[in-house]
Design a protein that fits this description.
The chain has 319 residues and is of the alpha+beta class. Helix content is 36%, strand content 11%. The chain is built from 12 helices and 8 strands. The protein binds iron/sulfur cluster (2 copies).
Length: 319
């Protein structure tokens, strides 16, 4: 589904959802619906986003530091200025969970389905939400990987904490999420960043860095060091060598998320013991939790043929 949206604008040198924001929307209606307050508007928007299928939703102020200065087209080989208007100063950030069982088969073509499904659900949610806001009489632009860095916006919107592997770690799904965003001029209340012990846990853990086949994840403390021009300047953090990482994807002819699979925060949090484990990982017992995670072989790869065998064992769907 997300590939179809991306191909939709190719005649106009646009790859919507990947390098360009979405344009497949109806016009903004001329009359604006008034809200009692930005708090009431934020509450309605979050409820609607969840009804449209968002697994997580938060809101933050547009921070121009995270907007790309230019968009690059891999179709025409040209760069154009980013066209997100700065007066769309609220950003609604959504997260879609990736399938836990599919991610256990990483790296595999099968696990690519978890990524594709995440993006496809993401496209449905951000397009529906942007149209809802346009129908209320406010401007709204739906966006996925294009236009701006999603992770810093998700951090400001309180969806999770930053980690060594360079991804957002959420309480609900760990690092196993795909992010979307809607830029709007609808006045909304903003959320606050959260902390639940991820930084301290990453200080003691290096499972992602040890498992990365190309050594793209740093093992030391956060720093301002840049691997190459693909890293941000002047931000002290764990920076992944994205060019080494993506080079590995290209060589494999498939995506990779080994770091996501082995991360101790990658759990099925519908299980009570996983929720308890996460709470303990945020305490001085984090060393014990890390030891247990390795001992119990969490994060080990499931072979794709075993995933298919399990699907067969479950028999035909009762739906
Ligand atoms: S996705 Fe794969 S190659 Fe990239 S950082 Fe993670 S483990 Fe390394
Ligand atoms: S594997 Fe360990 S170090 Fe890496 S992000 Fe997860 S918790 Fe942090």
């Amino acid at each position: 589904m997300s590939d179809l949206f991306t191909e939709y604008g190719e005649d106009e040198d646009r790859r919507e959802g990947f390098s360009d924001a979405f344009t497949l929307q109806r016009e903004v209606v001329p009359e604006q619906v008034e809200f009692d307050s930005p708090t009431a508007a934020a509450s309605e928007i979050k409820r609607v986003a969840r009804a449209f299928g968002a697994d997580l939703v938060g809101i933050t102020r547009l921070d121009p530091r995270w907007l790309y200065t230019e968009k690059f087209s891999d179709l025409s080989g040209t760069a154009r200025p980013n066209d997100i208007p700065m007066d769309l100063d609220s950003v609604i950030v959504t997260a879609q969970a990736m399938d836990y069982e599919l991610v256990r088969t990483v790296p595999s073509a099968l696990s690519g389905a978890a990524t594709g499904l995440g993006y496809s659900h993401d496209a449905l949610v951000v397009l529906s939400l942007a149209q809802y806001i346009r129908n209320l009489g406010y401007r709204a632009i739906a966006s996925m990987n294009d236009s701006a860095l999603a992770i810093p916006m998700a951090l400001s919107a309180g969806l999770g904490e930053y980690s060594r592997l360079g991804l957002l770690i959420t309480k609900e799904f760990g690092p196993r999420v795909r992010l979307g965003k809607v830029f709007t001029d609808l006045p909304l209340d903003f959320d606050q960043p959260i902390q639940f012990g991820v930084k301290e846990f990453c200080d003691t853990c290096s499972r992602c860095a040890d498992a990365c086949p190309v050594g793209a994840i740093p093992t030391g403390p956060p720093s301002t060091e840049r691997h190459n021009e693909s890293n941000l300047k002047g931000v002290k953090k764990w920076s992944v060598d994205g060019e080494a990482c993506f080079g590995y994807w290209a060589a494999q002819n498939s995506d990779c998320a080994i770091c996501m699979r082995v991360c101790p925060y990658n759990k099925d949090y519908s299980r009570w013991w996983a929720r308890l484990g996460q709470r303990l990982a945020g305490t001085p017992l984090r060393g014990l939790m890390l030891w247990l995670d390795v001992k119990l072989k969490f994060g080990e790869r499931v072979k794709p043929k075993d995933w298919w065998a399990r699907a067969t064992d479950q028999g035909p769907s009762s739906a």
